[in-house]
């Protein structure tokens, strides 16, 4: 396994761009060598030495890479591998990626992993939702963030959404969080919930409008009309 980790890190490092690394540093993306998303996806499409191995073996390799690499892009490559494979039937894959949240320390990895979890939640809610609930009550802010963003990654008619009761029950315990990335997740989730359940979500925002951080309020009210947004701003004052 270590040789495959070194191979992936070496190949991705060849694509490093100092300007892009500066950009990643600016957006608090740690351990980046500076590879754009486009270059990363393009490189993953080309075979690594292990790419023709059975998929079960590839999962073992990428799992090892995600858990052991100290390079941002190598971990992101593992996430992209998983993302492409969990959208149909990911029960087996859930047992692998469930533990990846323990290795999250930045918003970029967190968002892609939450997208993966959101597909798995649609397919196996009885399996995934109880785990998200545990993370919702964790003291780890990245687990808290995953418990929210995984519920509605982006609202779409093509995606199944948990009930509004479930969504708001997950948001409420974290609504006063002042962790930057948890607060953004609160706002993100309320924004996407509003797209699916506008009446119930707006009532919830009105009820908790003074508890929302500035970041959470900004995201949560993004899709509201100006009149409603101004009304809520007055309530906050």
Radius of gyration: 19 Å
Secondary-structure-based class equals mainly alpha
Q: What share of the residues does DSSP label as strand, in percent?
A: under 5%
Q: Give, in order, the helices and strands.
A: HHHHHHHHHHHHHH
* Mean pLDDT score: 93
Low-pLDDT ranges: none
Summarize the amount of helix as a percent range: 55-70%
- Treating each run of at least 4 consecutive H or I residues as one helix, how many helices? 14
Number of strands: 0
Annotated CATH topology of the domain at 126-237: Leucine-rich Repeat Variant
- Form type: globular
The major pleated sheet works out as:
none
CATH class of the domain at 126-237, anyone? Mainly Alpha
Taking the alpha carbons of the first and last residues, their distance comes to 56 Å
Explain the overall architecture.
The chain has 237 residues and is an all-alpha fold. It has a domain at 126-237: Leucine-rich Repeat Variant (Alpha Horseshoe). 65% of the residues lie in helices and 0% in strands. The protein has 14 helices and no strands. The protein has helices at 2-13, 18-26, 37-45, 55-68, 72-83, 91-97, 107-123, 125-136, 141-149, 164-171, 180-196, 198-207, 214-220, 226-236. It is globular. The relative contact order is 0.07.
